[in-house]
Amino acid sequence: MDIKAPPGVFDILPKDPQEEWHNSHLWQFVERVMRNTAEQYGFQEIRTPIFERTELFQRGVGETSDIITKEMYTFIDKGERSLSLRPEGTAPVARAYIEHHLSHDSPVQKFYYIGPMFRYERAQAGRYRQHHQFGVEAIGNSSPEQDAELIDMLYTLYTRLGLKNLRVMVNSIGDAPCRIKYKEALKNYLKQYFDQLSEDSQKRFEKNPLRILDSKDPQDKEIVAKAPSILEFLSEDCKKHFEQLLLLLNSLEIPYEINDKIVRGLDYYNRTVYEVVAEELGAQNSIGGGGRYDGLIKELGGDDTPSTGFATGIERIIQAMLGQKAETPQSYHPTIFLIPLGDEAKIPCFQILNNLRINGIKAQMDFSGRKLGKIMNYANQLGSKFVVVIGDNELKTKQVELKNMETGEKILAPLFHLSRILRIEVEGEDFIRIWKEMNAPFEQPLEAEFFLKKLQQSIDSTKHLTEELQTAMKKMQDIL
């Protein structure tokens, strides 16, 4: 039986020689930067179920959206309930906010999430039936500063991941009264082109003509290019909100352009909407976006609560990083690989392995007992920085040779004190941060000799840096 993954999904592997963006160490790196950035901006993690009651998405996302009409994975469970795999993250967060009365804790709540979403759509570059999103939701604040913070956060995230040539496109679609006036003007314009519109856009004409602006059909895009601008129909409050947002973006020197055709694909948006695009992804070049959805929580049964958020696809981010040749971390490799020679060495070697791991050192040990040459080749394939062979002589002298696999250099080290030496080696120039441990009494002359050598290197480096700083300071003094 030849069982393979269903169409439109993929495996994330430790190493995929065909698709580099499937490699798990890239995903871990991107998710780590996402979590760190979110926490620096004051967002806390929220995790919602991957399936919800279907009506949540029908009410929240909107009956006319592509998600509801074409893309949801919906099923009836054994309790005769209609459930759907979550196609997006905002409605579940809003549901959780209402259900758990989170507004009682604080009037302003800031959440982030990372997880899979599910949409039945034609698989193409950056779009998959199971895809992964990082998203944030800021609930309880109606100010343009909150919108600006999220745009800044999204742009900062991309720059931290090494992405370049980004375009931030912003728009305002006003509030409900603004959109009522604009819809009439838009429909009056589109009437003359109705027969030329795509089938989907013709269906949207009566129910939600704004969605036609979001059409990806080339003919539709050509028609709406000359449509009236929604910015001409904004109320004074909406206009003031948008102008303040632009001032804030200017103050942060975030490059943006106003695109009055952005409406986003979901019905719950109002006022601020935005997208970020990366040219390396081709036609489907949007890597993230969001906007304000002040009426969603009330629509789902909660209080009338202002809210705003964004989401970004992790697949597209990684593909864009690789397309732009952004700097990415190396895949997993152990710091040290232990090779016991003979049965007598296995138990002490296993103890050392455990001690290294307890002290935060990535360590592996050979369990196969193969020939030494083959084991060394395997350690090299893993990318181990050091290899240590432990046999009768090493157990007797309690000393080993740390072989650097990159340089071939060998360091004589105490057998049962490897962890402290390797921690310093891994820390590199930052070893002074663990000075307290270094300052503890040394039990082995070899250990003390190693640290003295490292300390002397640091002193020499500091002297050189001090000389450079003094030169720079002299130049600044001359200028002043």
Concise summary:
This protein has 17 helices and 16 strands.
Short descriptors:
480 residues, alpha+beta, BirA Bifunctional Protein, domain 2, 3 domains, eight-stranded mixed sheet, five-stranded mixed sheet
Descriptive report:
By secondary structure, the chain is α+β, with helices and mostly antiparallel strands. The protein is about 40% helix and about 20% strand. The protein has helices at about 25-40, 55-60, 65-70, 90-100, 145-160, 175-190, 200-205, 220-225, 235-250, 295-300, 315-325, 345-360, 370-380, 390-395, 420-425, 435-440, 445-480, and strands at about 45, 50-55, 75, 80-85, 110-120, 130-140, 165-170, 255-260, 270-280, 285-290, 305-315, 335-340, 365, 385-390, 400-405, 410-415. The strands form three sheets. It has an eight-stranded mixed beta sheet with strand order 1-5-6-11-10-9-7-8. Strands 13-12-14-15-16 form a five-stranded mixed beta sheet, sandwiched between helices. α1 (about 25-40) packs antiparallel against α5 (about 145-160) and α5 (about 145-160) packs parallel to α9. The mean pLDDT is about 85.
Tally the helices: what do you get? Answer: 17
Briefly note the CATH topology name of the largest domain: BirA Bifunctional Protein, domain 2
Q: What proportion of the residues form beta strands (DSSP E)?
A: 15-25%
Instruction: Write the CATH architecture name of the largest domain.
Output: 2-Layer Sandwich
Number of strands: 16
Count the domains: 3
Q: What general outline do the C-alpha atoms trace?
A: elongated
Strand order of the largest sheet: 1-5-6-11-10-9-7-8
Give the biggest sheet: 8 strands, mixed
